[in-house]
Amino acid sequence: MRGRRAKKIEHEDTHRWMVSYADFITLLFAFFVVMYAISSVNVSKYKTLADGMQSAFNQNGKQKAPMSNRNDGQSGGAIDVDAFNDLEQKLAELQDSDYSANRQNGWIELDIKAEALFDSGSAELRPLAVIKLMKLANILKKVPFPIALEGYTDNLPISTPQYPSNWELSAARAAAVARILTNYGVDPGRITVTGYGEQFPVADNISDDGRAKNRRVNLIIAKDKTIPRLLNPGEGKNQFTVETQKNNEPPLSLQPKTDMVVPLAKETP
Question: Which Pfam families match (predicted)?
């Protein structure tokens, strides 16, 4: 009997799925590595961004000083004194019948008659006034001191759609002067504008001459970077007050309050 060869039984490989599983796990691991890398925060860049935003929004409430590049030492103080004295001399040279400069304790005041700047009831500068203010701006833009512009009127009431009262008119006139100064080089951050209307007169409001003196724009330049005048406007001039009797009787007298004011003298050649 012829012998038969036994058939070799082939067993199926049941572990082939592990190759695909390993590939899947590897891809899944790579996916999570990429996701982690994308979501991780760059601490240094985040800190730089946070510091920049803090500086931009000024969270500490600090304001930049109006003067730039100033040394706080003695040399800086000496420079300020020299610059202020030089400014005093240059403003004195601008004096005429319409511009009057006075040196007071810590500041210089330039008193400008409203008639030299504006028509009656208007805050539009005259052409000749613009030329004079351009010269003034050329002087002021070279110094670091803060500037306050104060507008005043007489006591005659005004009531127009543009200027309902003397307050609006006085503020608009001071702002018009400020606009010319800034247009010709003076740093706007150094300027403040205030309108006082008929308050704080320097003369009586009975005569035409007195009312003309009260219609003015004052320009104050402070030496120590602050303007104490703003706490007591009208200080430093012959400010008139009216004393009245009881029962609303007419004024009895006009008594000026006087402070020491030193006029700036022009230097003689």
Answer: MotB_plug (PF13677), OmpA (PF00691)
In angstroms, the CA 17 to CA 12 distance is 12
pLDDT digits (tens, 9 = 90+) for 150-175: 999 999 999 899 999 999 999 999 99
Per the model's pLDDT, the better-predicted residue between 56 and 14 turns out to be: 14
Angle, alpha carbons 105-107-113 (nearest 5°): 115
Q: How far apart are CA 227 and CA 237, in angstroms?
A: 16
State how far the Cα of 117 lies from the Cα of 119, in Å rounded to an integer.
7
Domains of the chain with bracketed CATH: 78-263 (3.30.1330.60)
pLDDT in tens, 118-155: 999 999 999 999 999 999 999 999 998 999 999 999 99
CA angle 261/263/269 to nearest 5° reads 160
215 contacts 114 by C-beta, under 8 angstroms: yes
CA distance 233 to 158: 22
CB 121 within 8 A of CB 158: yes
